[in-house]
UniProtKB/TrEMBL annotation:
Requisite cofactors: pyridoxal 5'-phosphate
Cited SUPFAM superfamilies: Alanine racemase C-terminal domain-like, PLP-binding barrel
InterPro entries linked: Ala_racemase/Decarboxylase_C, DAP_deCOOHase_LysA, De-COase2_C, De-COase2_CS, De-COase2_N, De-COase2_pyr-phos_BS, Orn/DAP/Arg_de-COase, PLP-binding_barrel
Domain called Orn/DAP/Arg decarboxylase 2 C-terminal: residue spans: 30-376
Protein name: Diaminopimelate decarboxylase
Length: 425
């Protein structure tokens, strides 16, 4: 459920008209809803909290890569969320937004030594180690710094899942994590090092998962491994279950609800007496944001094909180009006109800059405002300046209040980042 609704025929973010935001901030622009972020967090927290016997003292660590805006992170941090991070930049974002270091998890397949050192120095909660070479480098870094750190070994449970091959991470051939047998060996090596402290296991098998079966299978692998490690005299106090729960991009109820998900996790973990970490990204943020855009023009070809050309492009919202993802597109001004098929495209010079083919939409005119829904996760965070297009600004609403939480850069700022060497001056 979200807080983007029509009021008197105009789409609003909470109590703020998207027309007002477009008039003051321009388009394209991302608009986020505080009430929706809060609601999604609470629904998940309550679902997990319903199983205190099995999911004790849980941590919900928001996956910063889904939406790294400091205002979004601060909103979630105030609710008690931690952060799942995959780079030094993301750790810095989480800290800057007020996330306590002991709620920050550092994941990722290619953490540089400098990033590992930064994380150890910052006192993060745990580093999820994804390979043998990484463990060796982390041990060396921790020895150098004379400071320990808790680690979890990320297991690749050989259960892939997700809405698209490019967002499946738990398959045997995916680059993430280590096979269960090797993870057991790494765990023992970490314990023997004396430099780092293995506290648990982690997994994250993919994203936009709408079926609980693969998640259950992956959690079961962690459970079995926990028991095995304990029979070998090793302590396991935390299990990091990753993120990945899917959201209904086309509206309607979720196919796997947070309540069912939490009940399933509780069922698998019951009796293990471990602290569970959850790393939702999309689940919290996707439907808490829209990408507001204006129609540049409608180009009707002689053969009747209608191209709806928007001022937002694949550089602003990559998911359709990258993952063939579906985003609903709503007119900001409600109309009762009968929908007709449109090809919805952006201005970028790539055929891939196509948001939808043959999408039934009410006919609109140049200048009309529209909004892609479900754009709060992997939207702005993936945006780039391809075609030298300025990054879209971001706006956060909270009831009747709203604020620009990232300014649109100016062209001068964009150009000022480059330098012409003296021999060309
Ligand atoms: C991307 C990622 C997540 C979040 O995934 P969602 O599908 O957005 O929930 C969580 N954990 C790790 C390790 C990730 O890489």
């Amino acid at each position: 459920m979200d807080h983007f609704d029509y009021r008197d025929g105009v789409l609003h973010a909470e109590d703020v008209s998207l027309e007002t935001i477009a008039a003051e901030v321009g388009t394209p622009a991302y608009v986020y809803s505080t009430a929706t972020l809060r609601r999604h967090y609470r629904v998940l927290a309550e679902a997990i909290g319903a199983h205190p016997d099995a999911l004790r003292d849980p941590l919900i660590a928001f996956a910063v890569k889904a939406n790294g805006n400091l205002a979004v992170l601060a909103t979630l941090a105030r609710l008690g969320a931690g952060a799942d991070t995959v780079s030094e930049g993301e750790i810095r974002r989480a800290l800057a937004a007020g996330t306590p270091a002991d709620r920050i998890v550092f994941s990722g397949v290619g953490k540089a030594d400098s990033e590992l050192a930064f994380a150890v120095g910052a006192g993060v909660r745990q580093i999820n180690v994804e390979s043998r070479p990484e463990l060796e480098r982390l041990i060396a870094v921790a020895r150098d710094l004379g400071r320990g750190v808790d680690v979890a070994i990320r297991v690749n449970p050989k259960v892939g899942a997700g809405g698209h091959a490019k967002i499946t991470t738990g398959g045997a051939t995916d680059k993430f994590g280590v096979a269960p047998e090797e993870a057991l060996a790494l765990y023992a090596e970490a314990a023997a090092s004396g430099a780092v402290t293995p506290v648990g296991l982690a997994c994250h098998i993919g994203s936009q998962i709408t079926d609980l079966a693969p998640l259950r299978a992956a959690f079961g692998v962690l459970r079995d491994m926990t028991l095995t490690l304990r029979t070998r005299g090793l302590e396991v106090t935390r299990l990091d279950l990753g993120g990945g729960l899917g959201v209904p991009y086309a509206g309607g109820a979720p196919t796997a609800s947070p309540a069912d998900y939490a009940a399933m996790a509780a069922e698998v973990l019951r009796g293990l007496e471990v602290q569970a970490t959850f790393e939702p990204g999309r689940l919290l943020a996707a439907n808490a944001g829209v990408l507001l855009t204006r129609v540049v023009h409608v180009n009707v070809r002689p053969d009747g094909r209608r191209f709806l050309v928007l001022d937002a492009g694949m550089n602003d919202l990559m998911r359709p180009a990258l993952y063939d993802a579906f985003h609903d597109l709503k007119p900001v001004h409600l109309t009762s006109a009968a929908p007709i098929a449109h090809d919805v495209v952006g201005p970028v010079c790539e055929t891939g800059d196509t948001f939808a083919r043959d999408r039934p939409l009410p006919p609109v005119e140049a200048g009309a405002l529209m909004a892609f829904t479900g754009a709060g996760a992997y939207g702005a965070s993936m945006a780039n300046e391809y075609n030298s297009r300025l990054l879209a600004p971001e706006v956060l609403t909270d009831g009747a209040r709203w604020s620009v939480v990232r300014q649109r850069p100016t062209y001068d700022q964009m150009l000022a980042r480059d330098q012409i060497p003296d021999w060309l001056q």
